Amino acid sequence: MSSGVAVTEPATGTRDTDVPALEFDGLTKSFGEHIAVDDLTFSVPRGSICGFLGPNGAGKTTTIGMALGLVPPTSGTARVLGWDVRTHWGHVLQNVGAMVERPAFYPYLSGRMNLEIFARQAGIDDSGRINEIVELVGMGERADAKFGGYSTGMKQRIGIAAAIICDPEVIILDEPTSGLDPAGQREIRHLIRRLSSTGHTVFVSSHILSEIQEVCTDVAIIARGKLVAHGRMDEILAGTDQLLIEVDRPDEARQALTQRSDLESAEIENGWVVVEAPRENSADINRYLVQSGFAVSQLRHREAQLEERFLELTGQPSGSEGEDG
Ligand SMILES: Nc1ncnc2c1ncn2[C@@H]1O[C@H](COP(=O)(O)OP(=O)(O)OP(=O)(O)O)[C@@H](O)[C@H]1O
Ligand SMILES: [Mg+2]
């Protein structure tokens, strides 16, 4: 089995929980002059739901392609559960299920028959499993209609069904909610949570920032092929020091607050005083206002929205064109 690759090579069947589900190390892909993925280094912890976020053309699908061994990297390494994708592709395929872009199926066969073919190719001959999966992804009775007539939402569902039919430990979904209505998007979020609760790692790319924020435990953000942020969602979102203060006489309160040396800014926003100050100073700011004769009715930190962080980090709107715009 070993082919001279020295580092972090787990034996077949090893379930070392320290090994990340996915690990990218200096991963780079150039198309001619154009560097689509640029020295990407990060890992996806096992058991996490990791969002993979980036504007159009940022390199998400190319990265996923390299993780699956479908796109050869120009340099660097992608590992799945410790296995180098290039040298241990067989192990990778056994442990990863993926839906990338628009999955293709036989148009004249029903969704169910397509899944049966898919399952049989993967060595599964169990109609119970097909029923279970059809149920899980919410295909319902449409499973028995021809794939050719499927709506976008149904195509996404059968794509996900095919990705998870072998019950892989690591599930990679490239924009699974694209083209889905809000109800469909919610179902996919439920599905992702359910997969996670049964021990799967889910790596999911999306443009829908709020969705990533809602469902993911971890996030990696790329722009123009480069990693701009990566970590636990709560840590990425903890980046705001903005304190929102509801107070009587907001203009005067703002004026009074500008006397403090610990404030970077103090502004009025929709009748609230918004100041930027270290988090640990908020109790003191409250005391200061009260002692100065103001009635403070609310004081809280603004929760960073992923969208704001995303704009800060990538310097462009979430849906805008990247390199290929
Ligand atoms: N086969 C290819 N040949 C040449 N350029 C490519 C190829 N595949 C991707 N690219 C380019 O690499 C860059 C990254 O593309 P990629 O599809 O990975 O981005 P993405 O983040 O998935 O974008 P989207 O959000 O639109 O799906 C883009 O500039 C794209 O045009
Ligand atoms: Mg893509």
Give a nutshell description of this structure.
With 325 residues, the protein is α/β, with parallel strands linked by helices. It has eleven helices and 14 strands.
User: What is the CATH C level class of the largest domain, in words?
Assistant: Alpha Beta
Question: What do we call the CATH topology of the largest domain?
Answer: Rossmann fold
Total of DSSP H or I helical runs spanning 4+ residues: 11
- CATH architecture title of the largest domain: 3-Layer(aba) Sandwich
Distance between the termini: 44 Å
Can you write the helix and strand succession as a string?
EEEHEEHEHHHEHEHEEHEHEEHEH
Low-confidence stretches: 1-14, 318-325
What is the average per-residue confidence, as pLDDT, rounded to a whole number? 86
Number of β-strand runs: 14
Distinct ligands: adenosine-5'-triphosphate, magnesium ion
* Strand order in the largest sheet: 6-7-8-3-9-10
CATH superfamily of the largest domain: P-loop containing nucleotide triphosphate hydrolases
Structurally, the number of domains stands at: 2
> Which value, in Å, is the CA radius of gyration?
24 Å
Strand content: 25-35%
Outline the structure in words:
There is one protein chain. This protein is an alpha/beta fold. It has 2 domains: about 20-235, P-loop containing nucleotide triphosphate hydrolases (Rossmann fold, 3-Layer(aba) Sandwich), CATH 3.40.50.300; about 240-300, Alpha-Beta Plaits. The protein contains 11 helices and 14 strands. The chain has helices at about 60-65, 90-95, 110-120, 125-135, 150-165, 180-195, 210-215, 235, 250-255, 280-290, 305-315, and strands spanning about 20-30, 35-45, 50-55, 75-80, 85, 95-100, 170-175, 200-205, 220-225, 225-230, 240-245, 265-270, 270-275, 295-300. Strands 6-7-8-3-9-10 form a 6-stranded mixed beta sheet, with helices on both faces. The chain has a 4-stranded antiparallel beta sheet with strand order 2-1-4-5, with helices on one face. The protein has a 4-stranded antiparallel beta sheet with strand order 12-13-11-14, covered by helices on one side. Helix 6 links the parallel strand 7 (about 170-175) and strand 8. The radius of gyration is 24 Å and the shape is elongated. It starts with about 20 loop residues before the first strand and ends in an 11-residue tail after the last helix. The chain binds adenosine-5'-triphosphate and magnesium ion.
